[in-house]
Amino acid sequence: MFEMLRVEARKAAEIIGRHDFARIYTHYDADGISSGAIVALSLLRMEKSIQVSFLSGLNEEVEEEELIVFADMGSGYPDVVSSLNSDVIVVDHHFPVGRIEPRRDFAHINPHLAGIDGSFEFSASATAYILAEELGDNRDLTSLALAGIIGDKQKITGGNLEVVRRGIENGFIEERDGLKMISGKVREVLRLSLEPYLDFYSKEEELDEFLAKCRIDGERNIDELSRDEERRLANAIAVRIMRMNSYPGVFEEVAGKKYFLPDELIHNAVMMSDVINATGRKASQSVGFGICMRDGSYLEKGFELWRKFVEEVHQEIERRRHEVQEGECIRFLVMENGSSTGPIASVFSRYLFSDRPFVALNIKKDGRVKVSARSNRKLSELVDLAEVMRVSAEKVGGRGGGHVVAAGANIDVDAVDEFIREVDRLCCTRLGSK
User: Fold this and answer.
1) Average pLDDT of the chain, as a whole number
2) pTM of the prediction?
3) Nearest to 339 by CA among 311, 359, 358
């Protein structure tokens, strides 16, 4: 199934072979940082020199070099890519928008161009791994690809599954049955978990009762529970999730196959992904990148940033859950200098307000607004959030895009009301409400 991707990957490998230096631009989330690390490690093993920069999108400035590699971005910015007087390689899984007309040598590795669903079945990190295979013996990088797959909440199916299988076959990924959750003491895992979100953060007595009912010692390490203990905990979690307004498919994503990465600094794949993501959200992408590059000196700082980020998100959820507003067909939240829109929108859309698309807007001090839109797989059959964000943002002079189930935009503060109205109108049109 990779053959069409490999054609572009081989083309990219030929371009890379002609250069001694590459400027790598990558997204700042877990999938982007993992993708950037896969490309970086592959090039360093070829004795190439590199410089890595982390961006929220190609709305930020890009410096021209002889060779530029975009990871987890580029497919939605044909104008930017076309303007560069550089050899360019795009390693992305977002749906391509418009036509790229390169000025020099160009390779575009994107699963959508090969007839593969990049929204659910092929992450940017998995795409980067296809390039890595063409650059040398990089089978160990399947573990980093898995961290990105998990970070983008993708399915382990299709192309993602093929990459994971290769990791398992070569001993770089271990698969077990169980709860796909972070590592640590059971009590802390349940209190801090955002995926699944269990609403225990400031409810210690409720958490004590929960643990007593399922007969689990909260001081035990969750990765060391017996199969029977894990089953009891899984059943109790399922009941709690069902009592919320959760998307029905959520629990299928919580229990099942869990993965461990024996050669990475963080062995639990979910924990690895969460720590990398947190470093990006806390504007310390170099820390997550260092962990992906297997530099142990970044590990303590990574965990510190992760805990701080998770605590902030929980506190933000508690503050903001009563500020959610309703449109005709969407729910939305407008914040000023909030902690992070993406994780908050994910929790609200998957666990607390799952019946409509959810849009979180964060007004920053500089007058720019960061927008994150989220839904679930059922809603995505009707509403393509990437299209909604792109069209709505362009109408108010901004830019938007992403995936059908998770997208975003950048707009000016003066355009907030008009933007929300346009998003609501488009969602109503797709949902058949207007």
Assistant:
1) 93
2) 0.91
3) 311
Q: What is the pLDDT of residues 8-47, one digit of tens each?
A: 999 999 999 999 999 999 999 999 999 999 999 999 999 9
Rounded Cα gap, residues 186 and 234, in angstroms: 12
Give me the phi and psi of 153, to 5 degrees please.
55, 40
Distance CA 98, CA 344 (A): 30
- State residue 357 phi and psi, 5-degree precision: -60, 145
- Domains of the chain are 3-173 (3.90.1640.30), 177-316 (no CATH), 321-431 (3.10.310.40)
Q: What is the mean pLDDT of residues 291-314?
A: 97
CA distance 216 to 211: 5
Checking if the pLDDT of 433 tops 70, the result is no
Q: How far apart are CA 393 and CA 389, in angstroms?
A: 6
User: How remote is the C-alpha of 317 from its chain's centroid?
Assistant: 19
User: Cα(190)–Cα(353) distance, rounded to whole angstroms?
Assistant: 21
Q: CA torsion sign, 286 to 290 to 292 to 297? A: negative
Q: How far is CA 324 from the centre of its chain?
A: 23
